Amino acid sequence: MESVHSDAQRAVITRVDEGHWRAVADDREVGRGDASRRPDGRIFLSVDAWHGTVFDRLAEAMLAELPRPLHTLVDGIDHDTTARWERAGMAVRRREWLYEVPTGSRPDVLPPPAGVTLLPVGAAEEGPLREVYSAIRAEIEATVGWAAMPVEVPVRPAGAPMDPSRYAVAAGPDRYEGLVRVVARRRHARIGLVAVRADRRRRGIGRALLVDVLAALRRGGIDTASVDIDESDVAAMALFEGVGGRRVGSGLELVIR
Predict the structure, then answer these.
(1) DSSP 11
(2) How far is 118 from 116, CA to CA, in rounded Å?
(3) What would the pLDDT profile of 160-219 be if each residue is shown by its tens digit?
(4) Where is the signal peptide, in residue numbers (predicted)?
(5) Which of 12, 23, 178, 195 is the most exposed, having the fewest neighbouring CB atoms within 10 Å of its CB?
């Protein structure tokens, strides 16, 4: 233990490039820090170090050299790491609940309203998809603000191309009414966004679209999907719990301004 502590004290912190720091003691890497800029401009930090002292020194160096605000994500039960970021000056901004959702069939779910057709992942046209995404984003910005969305939901610049292979949509007679963003990899899928236009909510569109996506995942050999939900989003929690989702963990977002 004394040797490890000595390494931590002797470690030299170096900024390798714009987004990476290294802690080196006796020609051995004993820790590293990373800063990544999300599409919406927010910078998220992470530190990987064997010793708490190295963690603290890396965090201090990164916070001193980067423009603010700065963010980080911590597992909701990782109290030690949360405390270290708080000692560095960060404060908890919000909590996200992690849900796991089974993809099994649900014969009791009602179909979407008349005139609404569910298009599976990959079937949407890019133009109408971009339009419904932009409209829904504007509605969210005007109410709770996009910052209340799960951290993993990317913000797309205005006019940027959309990837239909990551979206299922509910198509109305003359426009798309809602969408689900889903990324499937091997045996698991992650749902990033379920949203319906404000003037078309409370008609069962979102639930029908979500269930259709889950059924498609099951047919593709995927048994469960995961989703992050802000702890204040009661409607989203009710939606996912209503299709069998259960809370399995949480994450904290911390920020320093």
Answers:
(1) P
(2) 7
(3) 778 999 999 999 999 999 999 999 988 899 998 999 999 999 999 999 999 999 999 999
(4) none
(5) 12
- Tokens representing residue 37 in the block: 């800029």
The CATH number of the domain covering residues in 2-98: 3.40.630.30
Phi and psi, residue 232, nearest 5°? -90, -10
Scan for tokens 């979500």, then name that residue.
Answer: 210
Q: How do residues 63-72 score in pLDDT, each as one tens digit?
A: 999 999 999 9
Query: Per-residue pLDDT for 3 more than 60?
Result: no
Residue 22 near residue 47, CB atoms below 8 Å: no
Q: Is the fold of 2-98 the same as that of 108-249?
A: yes
Specify burial of residue 59 (Cβ count, 10 A radius: 0-12, 13-18, 19+). buried
Distance CA(166)–CA(39), nearest Å, equals 17
Write the single-letter amino acid at 189: A
Residues 23, 61 contacting (CB under 8 angstroms): no
pLDDT of residue 2: 45
Show the tokens assigned to 55.
């963690």
Residues forming beta bridges with residue 44, ordered by sequence position: 36, 71
Q: What are the sequence ranges of the domains in the chain?
A: 2-98, 108-249
For the residues 126-138, what does the mean pLDDT come to?
93
